[in-house]
Amino acid sequence: DTGVSQNPRHKITKRGQNVTFRCDPISEHNRLYWYRQTLGQGPEFLTYFQNEAQLEKSRLLSDRFSAERPKGSFSTLEIQRTEQGDSAMYLCASSLGARSRSYEQYFGPGTRLTVT
Amino acid sequence: QQQVKQSPQSLIVQKGGISIINCAYENTAFDYFPWYQQFPGKGPALLIAIRPDVSEKKEGRFTISFNKSAKQFSLHIMDSQPGDSATYFCAASGSVSGSRLTFGEGTQLTVNP
What we know:
Largest sheet of chain A: 7 strands, mixed
Helix content of chain A: under 10%
Structural class of chain B: mainly beta
Helix content of chain B: under 10%
Distance between the termini of chain B: 38 Å
Shape of chain A: globular
Distance between the termini of chain A: 33 Å
Number of strands of chain A: 11
Number of strands of chain B: 11
Number of helices of chain A: 0
Structural class of chain A: mainly beta
Radius of gyration of chain B: 13 Å
Oligomer: heterodimer
Number of helices of chain B: 0
Order of helices and strands of chain A: EEEEEEEEEEE
């Protein structure tokens, strides 16, 4: 399967702990996006990368959130000092990007975070 | 700030019927309008997408109708099947915004057998 993969699929953590999620995009996709989805809502944009450069961050992304994409391949999203309000599905998507003028974004299965 | 409004919130149709979901957007810089299908516990799957240079796009049983002047677009599912029961999201993006997607709130579709 050459789709977007995310790990772990589920994460339960206690309030105040740090968590890290990983996303592996579709091979050769140079754009990678992170979204957050709460129950009954549409996904909300968090941040995106063009290769290894983080080009935009949403105001939703507080100082406790940090994302990286070293070497322009996989990406990690870290949440420090988790809060109950961080409980959500964290989705990763990738696209070919501006080089090919393709805007089609393909999503991974998501990581379900529960903060107790 | 809700830039893409979607309706209805939920929809029940009979097998073989037509499902219609509507979306309206505000940002005139949007130039790409995809629809996603999401099953419980799964990520959204790209269904069909349209650009504003055409008024309609059809792929199998799925059709997008686009009205640029009204800033509205809709998804039509012909011959709806129980397997189509899922949550559908419209979205919009623009090249000037890095192509990040702004999603509607979703429509939960139930197709009764």
